[in-house]
Structures are given as C-alpha cells and as structure tokens.
Amino acid sequence: MEAMNVDVVVVGGGAMGSAAAWQLARTGKSVVLLERFEEGHHAGASHGATRNFNTAYAESDYLDLLAESRTLWDELSDESGTQLLDLVGLANHGNAARLRTVREAHRERGIESHFISAAEAGERWQGMNFRGDVLFVPGSGRVRAAEALRALRAAAEARGARFEYSTPVRSIRVLGPDSVLVATDHSEFTARRVVVTAGAWTDKVLDGLAALPPLVVTQEQPAHFTPLDGSLEWPSFNHNPDPDDPRDAYWYSPVYGMMTPGEGIKAGWHGVGPVTDPDARTFQPEPRQLEALVRYAREWLPGVDPSSAVPISCTYTTTPNEDFVLDAFGPLVVGAGFSGHGFKFTPAIGRVLADIADGGVAAPRFSASR
C-alpha cells in the first residue's frame, strides 16, 4: 500500500472540494483530492451545465461571499482562458415584501438592481409571465458549472495539487492535533489537515468525527423545457409564491430557473424532493411534483412547451436553516449543507475552507454550533 505525507487531503471532488484544492494549492501547500466517483459523475450535486449566479440576497454574510465570488470567478476565468459567467441578469418576482428587503440591502451595498413593472418585464422577456413588480439584478446570471469544475481542477493541478478520482475514502483517523490518517483501498495519506466536502455523503464519511447540525439529503428533480422561439431573451429567474394568493397554493416552494444552452429552459422547485440515501437513489422524478412543475411552466413560462419536460436528478444536502457549515473540528475542516444555493459561492467557499485549514474562522453564521 502506498503511503504519502501531505499538507492537506481534500475528501470530495465536487465544486467545493475542487475550489478548496485550488485555494490551498495557491498558498503553496501540498494537496491531494480524493473523489469516490469518476470525474464528471452525475451522482451528487455538482453536475450539469449551468447554475444561477444570483445576487438577490439581503444577508450581509452572503453578500460578502458573493462579492468575493465574483472576483474569484473572474480570476479563474482569466487563469483558464474560459468564460465562466454569463451575466444575462436575474429577474426576481413574487413576494414583493421580500424583494423590497433585498433591494434595500443592495442599495446599502451599491449593488445595481432596480424594480420594473410586470408589463415592462413581460414585454422584455416574452417567454415569461409576471403578476407584480420585478426586481432585476443585471450583474447576475449563470455560472457555466461543468466548465467551472474543469477549470478548478486545471488551476489546482497547475499549482501541484493531485486529483484522484474513483478513489473512495475508507476511513479517517485523527492521530493528533496536526495529524490525520486517511485510508483508501490502495493508499494511506497522513496530513496536517483534512478538508471534507463530501456533499450528500458528509455524515457517512465523517462517521461521528464532527458534531454537525442535521444534514437532510433530498433527491431534487428540476426539468428542462424546450423553448418555442429561439429568438427570445431569457434572464435567470427566481419566482416566490405570493403568500396570500390562493392561485399559488399548488406550489411546493419557490421556483428557480435559467436558460441552459443546448438543453432548454431549466426550472425547478427548491429543496422539497423526497429524503433519500445517496447510495440508494431512484433518480426518478416524484410524479406529483413533476406534474406541478409542468403546470407551473404552462402558467408562467409561455415561451416553452410544457409537455417537453426532461427531468434532471440531483441531491440537496440541507441544514435546518439553509445556512452552510464552514467549520473546523481539530484538524478536520468541514464544508457542508450547501442547501441548493451554494454553487454560485464556490470559489469564495474554497478560500474560506483554505483559511480555516490555516487556523482562520468563518463568519459565525456558518459555525456548526450556531
């Protein structure tokens, strides 16, 4: 069995683990990343071509991460020579009170956003219907998620990081305050720090080594819908149900969506899929939720064919309040519970995890003991 000493082992090679490896390697540390599945697998939460880059937050901790993420996405784009953001803007509608809170936070931060009427929004984005005012954020849009994963790996490896796919971690043993033994089927790694970013497998990988808040794993089932007119402009969008409007009673949750070039208009419920074991998933849509999503498309997305739904399957790993966990437990650093809204923050979360591995701390919101 191969034995190796390194500064840091990263367990989990999705977006967050790849970003942590990149940021750790940038500081000159020796890094090995271990991922149980093959590169580009569809078993977790990081696959797929696009994610929303959504700056419609009111909370200062998230706005801080967003500002840093935008800078780091641009740095990664420059390093890789690949465009990673499509800033087509993001249209937020429904639940006007929440949108006013977001707009006030943007005003205080100097983030560009503005309200437009439903009539103006409908004229501009003819593939969508609107009932009330729309908060438009022009500096938002899409992350090219699949290309981002490739760019993160290339940038990390260019600085000496080693990525090993199809390499499940069999055990993690804490030997001391600066020593952890990580075993796979063919190798043992002794590291000063271990960063665990294992998504839906976090609890299984840690096996009681860290006191985390409850992490609920769900199988989520958005879908792509075929556009009827390829010339229409599509922003990314978030649509909240109006709490006092009975017409929205069939909704399972807010809806998010975006154009995925070559695949269609993606739309999905947020965080309401069936609870699942990530090793025993069906990958099949829940019929009633899919039926409701098709109804949503019929009522709110006149620019798509609602009968064309092609379901997608992914996992969410969600904390009770949907805040992330970014914390240390001795020599173990854990990034978990990204709750279906983490991808946009990926490079900044990588930086935070690298800082924690070096003795830093995240904002109190992200503490495991909050």
Automatic annotation (TrEMBL):
It comes from Arthrobacter cupressi. Keywords: FAD, Flavoprotein, Oxidoreductase. SUPFAM superfamilies: FAD-linked reductases, C-terminal domain (SSF54373), FAD/NAD(P)-binding domain (SSF51905). One of its GO terms (molecular function) is flavin adenine dinucleotide binding. It comes from the Bacteria. Signal peptide: none annotated. This is Sarcosine oxidase. InterPro entries: FAD-dep_OxRdtase, FAD/NAD-bd_sf, MTOX. Residues 7-355 form the FAD dependent oxidoreductase domain. Its cofactor is FAD.
